[in-house]
Each structure stands twice: as C-alpha cells, then as structure tokens.
C-alpha cells in the first residue's frame, strides 16, 4: 500500500465518499497552499467520540482514522472586510472545488499546529476481476440497484429522483455505484463512517443493503399507515388519535411526534427555560428525576407529569403593567355603568391610594348588593381600568376547604384549589380576581373554606400562600381581590373584617330607565342579531316593562324582558328575509315600533300593579312593613285579625323566633299602655280593658307565606297593625314603616334602609316611617326618591300613631282631649 504525507482538513460530523465532487472553504488560518501540497487534501471526519466507541470506529482522539483524499480542481479567493474597534481589517477566504478519488488510513500525525500533516496509507479500492464477476453473476448488484431505487423514490425530493435513478440503473463501475448510493443515505455520520471504513466490496454492499432494506421497510410502513389512517378517518382529530394509538412508542408534544427520550429531554428543557424561583425549580427537578427513574407508563407517572405541567403553567414571573391612569379608569367605569356615582367615586379613591402606595397590598373591596346590580361587571371594569387580567371565581356553595386550598397529592384525582387554577388560567401573577358570592360559602365537616380565604385575603400572609396540591408557596400579594356578596349577615366576622364593604342598594325607576336605554337595549339588540334600524323601543314601553313586569333591585329581569321583545322582532325580521328571498317583489321590512300593547303581547298579562298595596289596605288591621332580603328590599304586608276566644295568639307565614318575639313585645306594650291608647278606640265599650285579651284570639299573618321571614325590624309595623285592629281604624295605604320596638315603646334603628326605601318607592309608597337613628342612612338616597317620598323619623311608637292612621285630624282631637282629661285628673289629685 502506498504511503504518503497528506495535508489533513478535519470536517465536523461529515463523511465524504470517493467519487463525490464537493466545494470546500478553507480559512486562512489553516495555511493551505494547493501548490505546496500538490493540490491534494485529506478530509478526516471529526466525530462524537462516544458514538465512535459505540460503533467501533477507529479514531485518533476525536478524529476518525479513515478519511477521503481529494484532488483540488478549482480555486477561488475572496476578501472580506471586518471591523475590530476603530480598525478595518481584510481577510482572505479561499474556496476550492475538489474531487474525492480514494480513501486513506492515518498512521500518525507529523504536525498538528497550525495545521495538520499526517502520514497516511492510501487504500486501494480496486476490485479483483474474479470478485467483480462473482458479484455481477449473482443478484447482489441487481438487488442493490432495486433497493437503492426504491429508497431514492421514497426519500428524495421529486426533482432529484430521476438523475439519481439514472445513475443507479446505468452506472457500470461498482465502486462508483456503491459509494454514490452510500452518499445518498440519510443516516447519522457515524453510520456513514462505518461504511467508509469497510474494505471488502461485498461487505460494503451488504452493509448498505441492510440500511436500505430497513429504511425502505420503515418508510413503507409509515406510508401505508398514513394512507390507512387517512382512509379510515375523515375527521382530523380522530385520525390524530388513531396515529397515536397505532404508534405506541411515540408521544405528542406541541404538535410534534417525539419518542419517550425526546419527551423527557423536552420536559427538562422546558423546566430549565422557564425562569422558576429557586425553591420551585428544585422541587420540580426532584419530581422530574422521579419521573425519569420510573421507566414504564403507569398511574404514578401521570400524576407526576400532571404536577410538573401544572407548576410550569403557573405565572411565577409573568405580570401585566398597571396603568394607574385615574382619568382612564373613570372613563371606563362610566362607559360600562350608568349611575352608581358613589360606588364609582369610592373605587377611584381606592385606585388612587393604590397608585400612590406603589404596591397592591391593602384593603380588599367587597361589593355588596342584590342580584343584577352590576357587581360582577364592576369588577371587570376595575380590571379593565387597571389594564390587568380578570378572573372570576364562584364561591357559591363551596363547602370544602380543599376547593380553595387544593387537595394534597396523595388523593386520587387531586387538583389545585380555585385560586391557583384561576392564576393558571389567566397567566398573570397580578390579575384582578373576583371572589363572587363570598356570602354563599358553607361550612361543614369537610372544613371551613372561609378560614382558607382568610389567608388568601390577608396581605400579611398571602405572599406565601401554600396550596396543598402544589406544596409550594405562591406569592398572592400582587393579586387584587374583589369580593361580591348579596348580604353581609352570612359572612364570617373575621373575613368581613378584612374587607371594605361598598353597598350597592339597587336602582330607582329613573336609573333603571337610563340603564335600559343606554346599555341594555343596545346590548340586547346586538345579542339577538338585529339592529337599531328595525326596532324602535319607546320610553313608554320601557316604563311599562319596568313597572309591570319587574320588581327587582337590579336590572337582570329587565334585561331578560327586553331580550324577549328583541327576539320577537328577530323572528319577524328573519321570516321576512326568508320570504323576500322567495318573492323579491315583497316590500322592504318595516321598522317595528314597540308599543305598550306590543309589550303585553310578547310578555303576557302584567304581573305587578302599582295600586296593589292601596287595594289591599282596605280594612283595619293591615299595615305595610319593609323587609331586607338577599335579593334586595321588599314591602311586607302584615295582617292581623281577632275573634271571640280565650286569649290565644296565632302566628302564620313561616316566622323566625325573633319575629315571633316581636309580636309578643308588641302585645306586651299594648297591654301595658292600654289606658294611654284607649282614646284611639272607635268603640271603647266593645272591649273592657281588664278582660280584653282574655276574651279574644288574635291571629297575625305575614303574606308570601312560603317565604321564611325573620328579624326585629317589623316591630313597629306589627304594633301599628294590632292597634289598627283593636281601634278599628284603617292605616294609610301610602305609608310603610320599619323599626324595632322595645317593651317600653322605643323605636330602635334597623339595617338595609336604602334597599327597603327603593322597594317601597317602586311599590308607590309616599310616606316612610323610619327610626330616628336611621336618619344618616337616608342622606345619600337619590334626589328622585327624596322628592317623591316623605320621610318621618320617630323615637317612640306614639309618634308612629300620630302619623300612620287615616282620619288623622279626628284622632288628634281625641288625643288632645285625652291629654287634657289626664292633666285635669292629675291636678285634682
Ligand atoms: N349600572 C349599570 N349600568 C349598566 N349595566 C348594568 C348596570 N348594573 C347592572 N348592569 C347590567 O346588568 C347585568 C347584570 O349585572 P351583574 O351580572 O354584574 O350583576 P351582579 O350584581 O353581579 O349579580 P349577581 O349578584 O347575581 O352575581 C349585566 O349585564 C350588567 O352589565
């Protein structure tokens, strides 16, 4: 074998076969001079040493031992300029065209710096005639050609197939044929190096055939599978599932099919790329190592994988930039909500303080009011005005502490709690989270969700909120929490204490009209697929919908009713369009004018009547009270009747204990003050004071009997109704009252005044009697109500009697006479 010295060019992960023509670029630093080295150059693959060991490739350190010798056929030089500091430098780069004409084996290196010179042994690939004959005689070559043709047909780009096929079919030199096909192979460089190192032609053919065979089988199978899948499934998602099922070792990540090893390395990359806090990173890496150590797919691996995915999906560092622009916030609040001036003002103050403090720690707002007054949508507007993401968590009916704080991972099907899930959904560390219906949280044997919320809402604790599922602290101090509630009574004291309550009592008639015209009608028109040009909802009709079809504090039912009217127009419009298609000569659709009659047609018989109370207060013993419920204020008619009997007191209408006691207190006061109120009696002879209550049975009934009622605020109404019954005097039908009564006749303040006043106003009440100490609660009642309602503040029940009855003049005269008689009696004594 011929030995020689050769200039060596190491090439990374590339194997050049003889008969290849290639272009090479040799940097100036390699000091290659074609003349000096007889236009010869040896390329030696620089391969991964571990893979080389695995595949038995002979290497000198990282270089393979077998290379290819090239003859330079052309040379080209270019200069390019580069700047280093203020200096401009020029560098020469040389490009060479070269033809590979043989193989060599490195014996040793003579020089390794600044370039490589090796002593090599040239390997002859000349095939002895008898071997060539033998190879051609059996089917080896024809089989080789067939396999190679199939391979290029499947693998190569269509335009590259014909020239390659032509070479495979026609090439007479076995060496050229075999090395060319080896060059076409799409395999790792280490595999190509093995082929290059084989000295025996038969061996080399066998090696290449093996690769061709397995590649062809693999590709054919994949093609067949794909065809089969396409045929079986027309639906894309189904076909994806089928492919996954039929190729069990493959997994799908981010739309790519990957093997389990790839999946693991992808996951590891994801963990490393996500900038997790150190403690979180360590915890996830621990889980990742556990996952890696479990080889087979089982329930445990799924649990760990889900956990890692959950942690990676959390916004550990992602935040949105706050826009503390108060003008913009004000605009957004006005844009989305009509009225609610006091609430908006309070929200703006709240935002102003936050912007000045520079952090988001501090008070938590609780918007409290009846359904449909816009609490949820206000929360959304606050998020919009701050430029933060918005998430709503419904706490209604949450009874299990684990729903807030998550289940420990030891439980089957464990999940993080609602707070962590909300953060995962909104992908921001500082969103506005609306804790909806915080008053509907229940407590039972599964724990107390309120106490978990205490931690969430406490600015001093929530920076290290630890969900049981994650078992890692998550900083909630940047989250802005807003709670909503229908009533405050059911919220636990410590929880309520952490929040600043903003009351939204409900809307007056005028406010509802305004909301309907500005917001609800345009919204419903759009939602029902029609437009302003085909419907005209006039003021009168909207008034009718509000007065006769709704009796609510908010506007939800109103919105629904407007929706029904819009839908009826949508049906008409759609039918007309259909017929217009069939008969194009039909006239254009006429704008539908919504009149009160149209409203009645769509919504049916009127449900509420403003005169209802007047009609019901038609005899002595009936008084109108005011109640405060979770759905807002309500007027409450109390009826009392008596009959001959033995002093029994019957109470009906699902009363709670406190209300029952109010009735006892009222009767107690009447009995003990009987002498002082006798002047009221229209017929004082009918009942003799001493045995009055022994001879009659009294029945007090609270209509809407199916609704449970409780509380002390009906005290003065019950007393007035009983006095009306006994004195046979009717109570004014336009008067309503609320207040607790003591045994001594004092009137004590009660809650829910604004809501009660709104309800009374909606029911056509003109005078409202309130406890004196509730004066402050009427200060911010809207001017509309103040203008139409006469408020009377009373300190004791006698003052109520001065206001509440019909024929007030006659009663005043009687009272004056009674008082004068009393004075006379006292002076005689
Ligand atoms: N002042 C208002 N201006 C404009 N639209 C309003 C106003 N108040 C309520 N709405 C509309 O009424 C509908 C009901 O409001 P929302 O769902 O916010 O009520 P809510 O108070 O959260 O009720 P719930 O207590 O039942 O959750 C929404 O479409 C909302 O936009």
Automatic annotation (TrEMBL):
Residues 6-216 form the Lon N-terminal domain. Pfam families: AAA, Lon_C, Lon_lid, LON_substr_bdg. CDD domains: RecA-like_Lon. One of its GO terms (biological process) is protein catabolic process. The active site is at 713, 756. It catalyses: Hydrolysis of proteins in presence of ATP. Keywords: ATP-binding, Coiled coil, Hydrolase, Nucleotide-binding, Peroxisome, Protease, Serine protease. GO terms for molecular function: ATP binding; ATP hydrolysis activity; ATP-dependent peptidase activity; serine-type endopeptidase activity. Residues 198-236 form a coiled coil. It comes from the Eukaryota. Residues 617-807 form the Lon proteolytic domain. InterPro entries: AAA+_ATPase, ATPase_AAA_core, Lon_bac/euk-typ, Lon_lid, Lon_proteolytic, Lon_Prtase, Lon_prtase_N, P-loop_NTPase. ATP binds at residues 369-376. Its EC number is 3.4.21.-. It is an enzyme of class 3 (hydrolase). Belongs to the peptidase S16 family. PANTHER family: ATP DEPENDENT LON PROTEASE FAMILY MEMBER. This is Lon protease homolog. It comes from Tetrahymena thermophila (strain SB210).
């Amino acid at each position: 074998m011929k030995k020689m010295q050769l200039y060596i060019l190491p090439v990374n992960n590339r194997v050049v076969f003889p008969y290849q023509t290639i272009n090479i670029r040799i940097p100036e630093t390699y000091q290659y001079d074609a003349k000096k080295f007889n236009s010869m150059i040896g390329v030696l693959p620089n391969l991964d040493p571990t893979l080389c060991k695995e595949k038995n490739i002979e290497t000198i350190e990282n270089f393979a031992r077998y290379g290819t010798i090239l003859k330079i056929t052309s040379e080209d030089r270019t200069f390019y300029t580069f700047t280093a500091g203020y200096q401009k430098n020029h560098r020469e780069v040389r490009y060479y065209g070269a033809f590979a004409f043989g193989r060599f084996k490195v014996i040793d290196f003579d020089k390794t710096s600044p370039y490589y010179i090796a002593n090599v042994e040239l390997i002859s690939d000349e095939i002895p005639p008898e071997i060539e004959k033998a190879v051609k005689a059996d089917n080896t070559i024809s089989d080789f050609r067939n396999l190679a043709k199939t391979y290029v047909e499947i693998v190569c780009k269509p335009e590259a197939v014909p020239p390659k096929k032509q070479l495979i079919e026609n090439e007479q030199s076995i060496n050229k044929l075999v090395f060319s096909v080896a060059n076409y192979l799409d395999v790792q460089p280490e595999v190509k190096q093995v082929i290059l190192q084989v000295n025996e032609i038969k061996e080399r053919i066998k090696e290449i055939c093996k690769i061709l065979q397995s590649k062809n089988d693999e590709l054919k199978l994949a093609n067949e599978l794909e065809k089969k899948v396409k045929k079986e499934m027309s639906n894309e998602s189904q076909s994806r599932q089928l492919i996954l099922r039929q190729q069990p070792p493959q997994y799908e990540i981010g739309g790519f099919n990957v093997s389990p090893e790839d999946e693991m390395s992808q996951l590891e990359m994801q963990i490393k790329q996500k900038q997790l806090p150190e403690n979180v990173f360590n915890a996830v890496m621990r889980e990742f190592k556990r996952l890696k150590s479990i080889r087979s797919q089982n329930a445990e691996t799924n649990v760990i994988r889900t956990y890692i995915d959950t942690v990676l999906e959390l916004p550990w560092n992602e935040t949105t930039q706050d826009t503390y622009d108060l003008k913009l916030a004000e605009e957004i609040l006005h844009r989305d909500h009509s009225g609610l001036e006091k609430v908006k003002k309070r929200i703006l103050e709240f935002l102003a303080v936050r912007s000045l403090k520079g952090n988001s720690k501090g008070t938590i707002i609780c918007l409290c009011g009846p359904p449909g007054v816009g609490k949820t949508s206000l929360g959304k507007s606050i998020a919009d005005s701050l430029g933060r993401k918005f998430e709503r968590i419904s706490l209604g009916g949450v009874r299990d502490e684990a729903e807030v704080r998550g289940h420990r991972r030891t439980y089957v099907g464990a999940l993080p709690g609602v707070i962590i899930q909300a953060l995962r959904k909104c992908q921001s560390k500082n969103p506005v989270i609306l804790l909806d219906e915080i008053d509907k949280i229940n407590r039972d044997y599964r724990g107390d969700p309120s106490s978990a919320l205490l931690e969430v809402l406490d600015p001093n604790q929530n920076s290290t909120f630890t969900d049981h599922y994650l078992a890692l602290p998550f900083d909630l101090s940047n989250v802005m929490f807003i709670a909503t509630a229908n009533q405050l009574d059911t919220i636990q004291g410590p929880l309520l204490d952490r929040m600043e309550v903003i009351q939204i009592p409900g809307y007056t008639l005028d406010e509802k009209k305004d909301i309907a015209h500005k917001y609800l009608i345009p919204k419903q028109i759009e939602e029902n697929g029609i437009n302003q040009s085909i419907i005209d909802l006039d003021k009168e009709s909207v008034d009718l919908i509000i007065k006769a079809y709704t009796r609510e504090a908010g506007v939800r039912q109103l919105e629904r009713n407007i929706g029904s009217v819009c839908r009826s127009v949508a049906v008409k419009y759609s039918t007309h369009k259909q017929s217009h298609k069939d008969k194009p000569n039909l006239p254009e659709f006429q704008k539908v004018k919504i009149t009160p009659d149209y409203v009645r047609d769509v919504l049916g018989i009127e449900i509420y009547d403003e005169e209802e109370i007047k009609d019901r207060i038609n005899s002595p013993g009936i008084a109108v009270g005011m109640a405060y419920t979770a759905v807002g204020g309500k007027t409450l008619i109390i009826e009392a009747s008596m009959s001959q009997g033995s002093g029994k007191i019957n109470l009906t209408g699902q009363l709670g204990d406190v209300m029952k006691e109010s009735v006892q207190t009222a009767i107690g006061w009447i009995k003990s003050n009987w002498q002082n109120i006798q002047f009221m009696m229209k017929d004082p002879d009918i009942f003799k004071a001493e045995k009055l209550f022994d001879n009659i049975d009294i029945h007090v009934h609270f209509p809407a009997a199916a609704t449970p009622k409780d509380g002390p605020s009906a005290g003065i109404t019950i007393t007035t109704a009983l006095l009306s019954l006994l004195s046979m005097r009717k109570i004014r039908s336009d008067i309503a009252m609320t207040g607790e009564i003591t045994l001594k006749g004092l009137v004590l303040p009660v809650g829910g005044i604004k809501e009660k006043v709104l309800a009374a106003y909606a029911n056509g009440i003109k005078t409202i009697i309130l406890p004196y100490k509730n004066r402050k609660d009427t200060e911010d009642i809207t001017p509309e109500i103040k203008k139409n309602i006469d408020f009377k503040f009373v300190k004791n029940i006698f003052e109520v009697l001065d206001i509440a009855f019909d024929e007030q003049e006659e009663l005043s005269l009687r009272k004056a006479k009674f008082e004068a008689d009393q004075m006379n009696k006292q002076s005689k004594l």
